[in-house]
Amino acid sequence: MLKPLSEKQQNPAIMPSIFSLELSDLENWLSEIKEPKFRAAQIYNWLYEKRVTSFEEMTNLPKGLREKLEETYHIHPMKEVARQESSDGTIKFLFELQDGYSIETVLMRHDYGNSVCVTTQVGCRLGCTFCASTLGGLKRNLLAGEIVSQVLQVQRALDGTEERVSSIVIMGIGEPFDNYDGLIKFLKVVNHDKGLNIGARHITVSTSGIVPYIYKFADEGMQINFAVSLHAPNTEIRSKLMPVNRMYPMNELMDSIRYYIKKTGRRVSFEYGLFGGVNDQVEHAEELADLIKSVKCHVNLIPVNYVPERDYVRTPKNQIFKFLETLKKRGVNATLRREQGHDIDAACGQLRAKERQEETR
Ligand code: SAH
């Protein structure tokens, strides 16, 4: 079992975020301080409809309540430290958190709408051998509100244009199931019709395969799209690529996925990175097809993205198509992921947590 996080990683010494609160949490807090419950909906309206950045602006609330909010919760936007725009329209934001750490968030433009790729942790402790996000280890979990704020801030960057955020992928820095409670709160807030009102089917969470939480997530009964980073056709190759597989081997992972499908009636997506010479041969595609043939799923192939500290090589284009065709011939529903934001290091596996706090000390 994954070791519990340290107190500091779990509960950073920062002010709680107002955006971590579900509507019912806000109602409970209001009743604790002897304020009427209906104020919760008013506050939600200011936060998610009007998208104000201070409690002062919530002019239909009594002054005393605004002061109480100010003393108790953090509402200020994260500082935008940098913004890079790709030639394909993708934008990567670098945001600074209350305690000085920085995280990356990506806005992707598709013909069907805009999606935001959010980060769930400062760094990551899983050590996948191909990924930049894990290079500095894990600093801490993000608060649910810090994940919500990423979506809000990207939406603010679009305010004033016709564009809006229409979907969310939880595929930024970190392992969402290693911040399970934060993730679930985040999902409840963005999905709520008085919150950001983003439909569950427009939200995708991706995990590296923390098996106990796959069971737990299946039991939540949410209609969220679910993706698993598989990356290998067998447990030996997977353990070489992803140390998490030594803790939760492939047969246990596949059992949990079968449980998820049975429980939710939904299909899963498998992310399969093609790492030159490691897992990208026709025989790997055949083995993969056999592994998942009885699983209701879709496979997303991702050619490896360049990470300077890692020495994986790209699979040649003709080999990628051979791999794809082999899967299809064997009845697997598979596509090649459209690549975005390469020129600004915003593609899968290229996001990093920045340690500004430690650099400046
Ligand atoms: N920790 C979660 C969420 C990250 S999602 C997870 O593992 O699923 C980011 C996706 O990009 C994952 O599928 C991850 O395995 C993949 N990835 C990481 N580094 C990559 C790289 N260098 N090239 C291509 N994909 C990569």
TrEMBL record:
EC class of the enzyme, as a word: transferase
Gene name for this UniProt entry: rlmN
InterPro entries: Aldolase_TIM, Methyltransferase_A, RlmN_N, RNA_MTrfase_RlmN, rRNA_lsu_MTrfase_RlmN/Cfr, rSAM, rSAM_sf
Taxonomic lineage from the root: Bacteria, Bacillati, Bacillota, Bacilli, Bacillales
Organism: Fictibacillus enclensis
Co-factor requirement: [4Fe-4S] cluster
Leader peptide range in chain numbering: none
Alphabetical UniProt keywords: 4Fe-4S, Cytoplasm, Disulfide bond, Iron, Iron-sulfur, Metal-binding, Methyltransferase, rRNA processing, S-adenosyl-L-methionine, Transferase, tRNA processing
Active-site residues annotated for this sequence: E104, C348
GO MF annotations, alphabetized: 4 iron, 4 sulfur cluster binding; metal ion binding; rRNA (adenine(2503)-C2-)-methyltransferase activity; rRNA binding; tRNA (adenine(37)-C2)-methyltransferase activity; tRNA binding
Main location as per UniProt: cytoplasm
GO biological process terms, semicolon-separated: rRNA base methylation; tRNA methylation
GO cellular component, one term: cytoplasm
Protein name: Probable dual-specificity RNA methyltransferase RlmN
Superkingdom of the organism of origin: Bacteria
